[in-house]
Design a protein that fits this description.
This protein has about 300 residues and is of the alpha+beta class. The protein folds into two domains: about 160 residues, Ribosomal Protein S5, domain 2 (2-Layer Sandwich); about 120 residues, Alpha-Beta Plaits, CATH 3.30.70. It has nine helices and twelve strands. Strands 1, 2, 3, 4, 5, 6, 7 and 9 form an eight-stranded mixed beta sheet that branches. It has a four-stranded antiparallel beta sheet with strand order 10-11-8-12, sandwiched between helices. A hairpin with a 5-residue loop joins β2 and β3. The protein is globular, with a radius of gyration of 19 Å.
């Protein structure tokens, strides 16, 4: 498992510590509307080595408490609390747990931080209590919690269809360096979907074929040239800083630059670490959150 395992006994408490990695979308298109009010999408997820840390303490006092370094994410009205509740209810667990979230991933940024925190909480609780939920149960819980959550039980490079929860393996992104930039604005996913018209749908399929071909051959330049996000055009119009960041990235040597998810984080894919690092140093003077990272493979959590 690509996660930080840090388990110990403190007095009468068991402590489990895990990393919750975030993702970027190398490709994201909307195929159409569903009868349940959601949309059918086509996406390529890629985990990167930026992470929150989930720390869970098992204790005698019953119930779940969630504390986060971002105070508004503490309490009961959050996805981590719901994930822990699902797990504990299914296994009829009566003792208590205290969950601490050390946030490093920006919220509302298109990086899937909340979804990853939820999936990692379930994995950490499984390890803590010696349980091994079947894949279909994890998928069920993931779909209840959010469309991105099932992906974070796997990680790596994967294709997502339906609402994003139907997953298939694609060739792994091994090469390249990724510069991620968040301009400090939050975009709500539901607002992004309201910007779309049916004429926008299903326009990127040729680029998807090229992207998969690039993954198969490890051609970072082809991958960068083939990345696509249906939301980007509308969000660049609403938030010109997104286009501004994309321009900085490509002028700094990125093979391609794209908004991730519904935004507002933008990432650039570089062949050279030197170019990527030079870009990071420049952009850190302009934007509040800039990181250099690498793609990482699947978690092998089963």
């Amino acid at each position: 498992m690509i996660a930080l395992k840090y388990d110990r006994i403190e007095g009468e408490e068991t402590v489990v510590r895990r990393r919750a990695y975030c993702k970027v979308n190398l490709y994201l298109d909307v195929i159409g509307c569903r009868t349940d009010g959601y949309h059918t999408i086509s996406t390529i997820f890629q985990t990167i080595n930026i992470f929150d840390t989930i720390i869970i303490r098992r204790c005698r006092r019953p119930g779940i408490t969630v504390h986060c370094t971002i105070p508004k994410l503490s309490g009961t009205d959050n996805i981590v609390y719901r994930a822990a509740s699902l797990f504990r209810k299914y296994y009829s667990i009566t003792d208590g747990c205290r969950i601490r979230i050390q946030k490093n991933i920006p919220i509302g940024a298109g990086l899937g931080g909340g979804s990853s925190d939820a999936a990692t909480t379930i994995v950490a609780l499984s390890d803590m209590y010696g349980k091994m939920p079947e894949s279909n149960l994890l998928e069920e819980w993931g779909t209840i919690l959010g469309a991105d959550v099932p992906f974070f039980f796997h990680g790596g490079t994967m294709s997502g269809t339906a609402r994003g929860e139907v997953l298939s393996p694609v060739p792994v992104l091994h090469n390249g360096w990724i510069v991620t930039v968040n301009p400090g604005i939050t975009i709500l996913t539901r607002e992004s979907y309201t910007q779309l018209k049916s004429d926008d749908f299903n326009k990127g399929h040729i680029l998807l074929e090229q992207l998969v071909a690039g993954l198969e051959t490890g051609d970072v330049t082809l991958i960068g040239r083939s990345m696509y996000n249906i939301f980007e055009r509308h969000e660049c119009r609403r938030h010109p800083v997104i286009e501004e960041i994309k321009t900085y990235l490509t002028k700094s040597g990125a093979c391609g630059a794209l908004m991730s998810g519904s935004g507002a984080t933008v990432f650039g894919l570089f062949e050279s670490r030197v170019s990527a690092l030079r870009c990071v140093h420049k952009l850190q003077r302009l934007y509040p959150w800039v990181r250099l990272c690498r793609p990482i493979g699947s978690f092998n959590r089963h």
